[in-house]
Design brief:
Layout: E1 2-9, H1 16-25, H2 30-38, E2 47-55, E3 58-66, E4 83-84, H3 85-94, H4 99-120, E5 128-129, H5 135-150, E6 155-158, E7 162-163, E8 167-170, E9 173-176, H6 180-185, E10 192-193, H7 203-212, E11 215-216, E12 223-231, E13 242-251, E14 256-267, H8 272-284, E15 289-296, E16 302-310, H9 315-325, E17 332-340, E18 342-350, E19 353-362, E20 365-371, H10 373-383, H11 387-400
Parallel strand pairs: 1-6, 6-11, 7-10
Antiparallel strand pairs: 1-13, 2-3, 4-5, 8-9, 12-13, 14-16, 14-17, 15-16, 18-19, 19-20
Helix pairs in contact: 1-5, 1-7, 2-5, 3-4, 4-5, 4-7, 8-9, 10-11
Length: about 400
């Protein structure tokens, strides 16, 4: 079994326009981007264009967002009128974007909103975007979501993002690189600075990485069928200003692999009710898993080992939540490799009625079937049979489907 895999090679950083340009170079039609932008009903007139150019000897595609009649500085950090988070959210929710595209774009903007709220000490709902509220940034993130959906990408990985050194002029003054919003969005994700006196990873690029990329590191073995070259705005002195996007099929015969962060802490003075509440909060805030196991600690004290799995970009936030919501004075974070089965959820017909099942595949082989406990309980009561009988019927139906 294979999955459509997009791998981003970011030796010169990443911006929203570079990412969109790489998707165009992979074959996404510009008309798709134009349709997505038109569906937003922006008050500004927006013209999308592409051009072929060369950066550091490599040919590729540039993605240009123009507002006719306005003096345009491509994808910079100058002063823009910007928009509030609520305005952008309403634009997206009222649009005719496909639900997966809309939800992906909303998630990327929400990451930026959370970062800005923390930086400026204001509630998320009152955040005012400057750079990311500009038309070109809105277009970049919406087109990024639309392009990924068009290519039917199921897995995105990337190399460690890089940024330059020096300072940048933002709406609130001069700041050292990485730009404050970029650093906050990439909290929990490794970023490497190189000796180039320019911003290389922008807030929109950071939002794309934080939301869409599930694993950072070298390219795993997979068959690259296409390579797209997205060009940046300027020429760099020592490297091509290019984002390479590898599109191909990755095998899932050994299960899906990704990197997650394991957060662990020992607790010896917490009640069961308090611990259950903390686990519920962690799951509600985006933990991949959270569990507690009994522990015999020093001086023969009984306690609990609390273990949480988190995506790298969520690890710091969830670690802070553990320290706030439990009695922990410290914790450990470790990046680990996780392997999971390919999952599918469906409803199967049984003599007791429809039962939802979760299926787990290793390659093409069905190796796990988990009937819905809720459905089994309801059916067992309705039919006056055992829970086990209903579950067995659901498993047989799933195997024979």
């Amino acid at each position: 079994m294979s999955a459509t895999h997009l791998h981003l090679d970011c030796p010169s950083g990443i911006s929203g326009d570079m990412f969109c340009a790489s998707l165009l170079d992979l074959g996404v039609p510009l008309s798709l981007f134009q349709e997505a932008v038109t569906s937003l009903h922006l008050p500004e007139k927006v013209l999308l264009q592409t051009e072929r150019s060369i950066r550091g000897g490599l040919a590729g595609t540039r993605f240009l967002v123009e507002e006719p009649g306005h003096h345009h500085h491509p994808h910079d950090h100058g002063h823009h009128h910007g928009r509030n988070w609520s305005e952008i959210r309403d634009l997206l929710k009222k649009s005719k974007l496909a639900p997966p595209v809309r939800d992906s774009a909303l998630a990327m903007f929400h990451r930026v909103a959370e970062a800005e709220a923390k930086l400026h000490g204001v509630p998320v709902e009152t955040v005012h975007f400057h750079e990311v509220g500009a038309v070109d940034s809105i277009v970049d993130l919406v087109c990024a979501a639309a392009g990924v959906h068009h290519l039917k990408v199921t897995e995105i990985t990337a190399t460690t993002p890089v940024d330059g050194t020096g300072t940048i002029h933002c709406a609130h003054g001069k700041f050292p690189l990485p730009a404050p919003a970029t650093a906050e969005i990439l909290r929990g994700i490794s970023i490497r600075q190189i000796d180039v006196p320019h911003e290389l990873t922008t807030p929109t690029g950071a939002a794309i990485l934080a939301q869409l990329v599930k694993k950072f590191g070298p390219l795993d073995s997979f068959a690259a069928e296409k390579i797209g070259y997205g060009l940046g705005t300027r020429d760099l002195p020592d490297r091509p200003n290019v984002l390479r996007a590898f599109l191909g099929q990755s095998s899932t015969s050994q299960g899906r692999r990704d990197l997650v962060v394991e957060i662990r802490t020992h607790l010896d003075d917490i009640t069961g009710e308090h611990l259950a509440h903390a686990i519920d909060r962690l799951m509600a805030e985006g933990a991949l898993d959270a569990a507690a196991s009994p522990l015999l600690m020093k001086k023969a004290r009984t306690g609990h080992l609390l273990t949480i799995l988190a995506l790298p970009q969520d690890a710091e936030r969830l670690a802070s939540l553990v320290l706030r919501e439990t009695t922990a004075f410290g914790l450990r974070l470790e990046q680990v490799e996780r392997r999971t089965l390919r999952r599918e959820e469906k409803s199967v017909a049984t003599s007791y009625g429809p039962i939802r099942v979760k299926l787990g595949y290793l390659g093409d082989s069905l190796v796990q079937i988990h009937p819905s406990d809720e459905d089994c309980r309801k059916a067992s009561i309705s039919a006056s049979v055992s829970h086990a009988d209903v579950a067995a019927a659901a498993r047989n139906a799933a195997r024979n489907a």
